């Protein structure tokens, strides 16, 4: 289980730890993260239980209700809103609330925009991961797209590979560190693009390369030359049999 999957599962339910999660918790950092999420879960539950019902609220609700279904929806919305507010408050106190991740850009609908949003949202997280990825692991993630990489001859090493949500589809998400310490992110998206294109923002630049019925997207820091990496991947990426 990789770091991203572990954190997602613990954040989804910190108290429901199966055998796989317990095994992953042998790592001190995993144990510390789990303890932190369990403590936050207890604080949220305590905050919900400590909410006092204002005097006369029940009578006012009964007086104004127009049906059981409407009252039930209001009750659910109230608790969801309260839980979200408490989670927001504790997220700020713990320094874990990520405004960028919590407020997705509704205008990110092109391949270039989605790629930049991914890289900007996740750069701090993936920077701390080094899974020493092998060629076999990369090809396992490429298999659903009908592709394979014949050689992992990159200038540096691959530190992370997985699938990710990419707009309305899924993509292969690969991160590499070059020998000069630059971080490069590669996406393979099962969506055709008409022509090669380049793009950039204030921090990154990228290239979209058409590949039959897919698109290869490479994003790197502005100081990082991307052409050698794009050419290398393109030359070694082929249709799997």
Commentary on this structure:
With 241 residues, this protein is α+β, with helices and mostly antiparallel strands. It folds into two domains: 3-100, no CATH class; 111-239, Phosphorylase Kinase, domain 1. The protein is built from nine helices and eight strands. The protein has a six-stranded antiparallel beta sheet with strand order 2-3-4-7-6-5, sandwiched between helices. The protein has a two-stranded antiparallel sheet with strand order 1-8. A hairpin with a 2-residue loop joins β6 (204-211) and β7. α1 (3-12) packs parallel to α3. The longest helix has 27 residues, at 68-94. The radius of gyration is 23 Å and the shape is elongated. 20% of the residues are buried. Mean pLDDT is 75; it is low at 66-76 and 90-108.
Strand content: 15-25%
* CATH topology heading of the largest domain: Phosphorylase Kinase, domain 1
- Helix content, binned percent: 40-55%
Number of domains: 2
CATH level-1 class of the largest domain: Alpha Beta
The gross shape turns out to be elongated
Helix count equals 9
The radius of gyration over CA amounts to 23 Å
Give me the CATH architecture of the largest domain, please.
Answer: 2-Layer Sandwich
pLDDT < 50 runs, ≥5 residues: 66-76, 90-108
- Category by helix and strand content: alpha+beta
Number of strands: 8
Strand order of the largest sheet: 2-3-4-7-6-5
Largest sheet: 6 strands, antiparallel
**CATH homology superfamily name of the largest domain:** MucB/RseB, C-terminal domain
Please trace the helix and strand order, writing H or E for each element.
Answer: HHHHHHHHEEEEEEEHE
């Amino acid at each position: 289980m990789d770091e991203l999957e572990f954190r997602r599962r613990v954040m989804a339910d910190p108290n429901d730890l199966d055998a796989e999660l317990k095994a992953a918790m042998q790592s001190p950092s995993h144990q510390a993260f789990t303890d932190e999420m369990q403590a936050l879960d207890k604080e949220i539950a305590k905050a919900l239980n400590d909410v006092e019902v204002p005097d006369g609220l029940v009578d006012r609700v009964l007086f104004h209700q127009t049906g059981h279904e409407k009252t039930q929806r209001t009750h659910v919305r109230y608790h969801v809103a309260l839980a979200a507010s408490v989670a927001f408050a504790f997220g700020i106190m713990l320094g874990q609330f990520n405004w960028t991740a919590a407020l997705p850009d509704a205008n990110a609908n092109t391949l270039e925009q989605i790629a930049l949003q991914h890289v900007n949202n996740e750069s701090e997280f993936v920077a701390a991961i080094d899974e020493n990825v092998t060629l076999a692991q990369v090809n396992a993630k490429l298999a659903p797209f009908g592709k394979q990489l014949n050689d992992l001859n990159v200038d540096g090493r691959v530190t992370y590979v997985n699938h990710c949500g990419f707009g309305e589809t899924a993509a292969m998400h690969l991160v590499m560190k070059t020998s000069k310490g630059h971080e490069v992110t590669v996406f393979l998206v099962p969506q055709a693009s008409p022509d090669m294109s380049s793009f950039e923002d204030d921090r990154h630049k990228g290239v979209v390369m058409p590949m039959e019925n897919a698109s290869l997207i490479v994003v790197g820091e502005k100081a990082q030359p991307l052409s050698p990496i794009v050419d290398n991947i393109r030359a070694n990426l082929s249709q799997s049999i």
